[in-house]
Design goal:
Elements (H helix, E strand, L loop, with lengths): L1 H24 L4 E7 L8 E9 L2 E10 L10 H11 L5 H13 L12 H20 L5 E3 L11
Parallel strand pairs: 1-4
Antiparallel strand pairs: 1-2, 2-3
């Protein structure tokens, strides 16, 4: 009888634990936003909004805004400065990371692009928080304290 109880415990408990893990992984439908808690030294506040539909991240917007409300992706001075320095359109990295996120649904699987490590680091931190908000069904904007980047010479 004891053996039967032990065998049942070995079968039932892992199945129950797997069910708990799955329920923690469910993404609730809706729009979820994570943003930097403060403006960076250059005057930008990064944000990521994901839209979850049928439990899957369907679309996302990753950008930054300054205190005047200007989006970084529309700032021609910023674009020119970055292009002159790296010979790359700085809007490339947000689009690239969004496409990866939509494809793999896991920010930790996204690899940084050359010259895009700073953007990658910020994106992953914001994506983790937005996904966690979706798991909790928390529609309020999540404030993320972004660390000083380890890649100051990248975009």
């Amino acid at each position: 009888m004891r053996v039967l109880v032990v065998l049942m415990a070995l079968i039932v408990l892992p199945a129950m634990a797997a069910g708990c893990r799955q329920s923690q992984q469910v993404l609730h439908d809706g729009y979820y936003t994570a943003q930097s808690a403060q403006y960076c030294a250059e005057g930008w506040k990064d944000y990521l909004t994901i839209y979850v539909n049928d439990g899957v991240i369907a679309t996302a917007e990753f950008n930054a805004v300054n205190s005047s409300g200007l989006l970084r992706s529309w700032d021609q001075d910023y674009m020119s400065k970055i292009y002159d320095r790296y010979h790359v359109n700085p809007n490339l990295f947000p689009r690239l990371y969004i496409n990866y996120l939509l494809s793999v649904q896991d920010p930790d699987q996204i690899q940084p692009a050359k010259h895009g490590r700073k953007t990658h680091e910020i994106f992953v931190l914001l994506a983790r928080q937005a996904i966690e908000s979706s798991r909790l069904g928390n529609l309020s904007v999540a404030e993320v304290h972004l660390p000083q980047t380890r890649f100051p010479d990248d975009i």
